[in-house]
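note to self — DONT lose this again. spent like an hour looking for the file last time. sequence + predicted structure for the chain T wanted, 223 res
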Amino acid sequence: MRKLLAPSILAGDWWNIGEQIEATIRGGADVLHFDVMDGHFVPNITAGPEILASVRKRVSLPIDAHLMIEDPDRYIPEFIKAGANWISVHIENVPHIHRTLSFIKDLGAKAGVVLNPGTPLSAIEEAIHYADYVLLMSVNPGFSGQKFIERSLGRLSLLREMRDRLNPDCLIEIDGGIKESNVVEVVRAGADVVVVGSGIFGAQDIESQTRKIKDLISSAVAV
């Protein structure tokens, strides 16, 4: 299974975000990760569908919208209309996960289910049958630049076993604190899609750093 790199534009400099996104694309990015926060479900506020639509006009890569918001069903159509190709929602605040995942798919996007660090993997054991991908958070969501929670490696391995048993076509995505120092570990533990924020956008040369992270992912697969 091909491994994908998804730069998280939340970590970028919004004054220069267009140039920075273009730099990640030149460096080999596969997907753009777009974090959506409402100040209620998580303690931060970020961009909405209008900003996503602006990005969509200028890039052809898939856009992965991670909805860290209350009542995500209400806003899913807006984000897909704006150009999101992937939509993920949290198991912690979606009471009817089968219906929501089906709703996303019916609108033509890939459907993902997200787990926070303190949520047991068993919470998505049924939902994984219907998901195109599972996003495992390796930090508590809300802010870029947090430290990777080490227990996430073990959770990732267990999630891979669950995925292989229940839905082998489902991708495993990981987000939070991924950098040069641990990207190889997370790929070997089972990640198919690696979200990297400050580990890319914190570099002086974003294009070169994106390429370096991409090469590390490739080397992990080759072993």
